[in-house]
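Journal club prep, notes for RB
We'll compare a predicted complex against what the paper describes. Inputs for the iron/sulfur cluster case:
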Amino acid sequence: MKQVEKTKENLEMCNCLKCPSYTTSCKIKEMPHNMMDMLKGIENIEGLENLFCAYTKSRCIDEDKGCLCNVCRVHDKYDLEDGHYCIVDGGFH
Ligand code: SF4
Ligand code: SF4
């Protein structure tokens, strides 16, 4: 298990936006924050409402409706063992 890097490449591989736990209301609520954060630069921000294994858990998602981490290429690349990083902090932070 390795520290997941906060990179665009990893963000592109992340499945969170396709995940049923990432509800439409959270997507709408967090979209402006995410856009602002992306402008600051993905490596320079403390939290992002996406790529949760590299950042912290979500401030919006609070219910487990399934997880796509175990079929994610980031999960493979960094030998991650868990999932649900939006609800439970992964232990890197
Ligand atoms: S961390 Fe897992 S449960 Fe949470 S949004 Fe991403 S894929 Fe879904
Ligand atoms: S392991 Fe989960 S949180 Fe991490 S990039 Fe993949 S889908 Fe996103």
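Talking point for the session: The first helix runs from residue 8 to 13.
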